[in-house]
Write a structure and sequence with these properties.
By secondary structure, this protein is of the alpha/beta class. The chain contains 9 helices and 15 strands. Strands 3, 4, 5, 6, 7, 14 and 15 form a 7-stranded mixed β-sheet that branches.
Amino acid sequence: MKAWQFTSVSPTLEHNLRLNTNAPLPDKSSSLPADQILVNVLAISLNPVDYKFPEIPFLGRLITGSPATPCIDFAGRVAATGPNSQKISRVDLEPGQLVYGRLDSPTKFGTLAEYTIAPRAGCVPIPSGVSVIDAACAASVALTAYQCIIPKLRGGEGAREPRVFIDGGSGGCGTFGIQMAKAVGCHVTTSCSGGNVPLCKSLGADDVIDYRSQDVVAELRKMPPFDLVVDNVGEQADLYWVAPSFTNPGAPYVQTGAPAINLGFAWSNLKKSMWPGWLGGGKRPWEFLKLQSKVDDYAQIGKWMQEGKVRAVVDEVFDMDDKGPVKAFEKLRTGRARGKIVVKVAEECE
């Protein structure tokens, strides 16, 4: 099969990406374990974890192995299925059925290939009326947005609509998060660069802060306090520590973004989650989202997409050949994508 692979991440993963036209199928493809799905991949979308994880010194390469294929999101067709234990879903997936989803973590046999093996919890039918490209976009970021927002909402005081601040509204998680929060009746404030303000407003954001020309924290303090903060960026180090000045007591602070995965990142997270408030620790409940693939969550996301309440925002689509994936990773690394970056693995995606 065709698969893009890397054997080194120095100086970057994409610098070492090569197309192997005779790569082996993933291990156990001919004898799938229970609740495992062999997928003929049609399209994939990129996420920062696709390069940040393999580039973790020592640990990243140890886990992914070599040569390794990057990426965890996919949309495609079922090629074969392992036995259905019915612990995850009573519904069987059928060969030829269009599906989308995600792998649990970066692995040696990622999705930037013609075939990948996905866990049943992270492999669900594409709803009718939703394109393969849009489904590929939703695989991880829509699930992240959902789990950052929907289970965390406690409702506003009295009859007031819940107020949500989404830091970073124009990326993959942000574009889905704005729409989902509006779908359940929230007032949404978000931040982005000036050029992306119209995009965020078109998705339903009530207030948009241009972080390049405005002081985000100062603007937030002028507004009524928020009931939930979703941090998709993670670059403004003091945002969590000053959150009590613009949030209601007990408002969750959920972080999904990080500039790098290293010891400093781990230490910062430890302080936020473990250091007692009376010793100078945080005054708001904090968590770095531990994303879990859940069939029921995907079902609600699919329903919203089918109804037109939530849509994918596609920045650019690259081809599988002609260095397309290399260019896709280069663009992803800039952090300036509007929505999702997609690679078409197959020429015909529908």
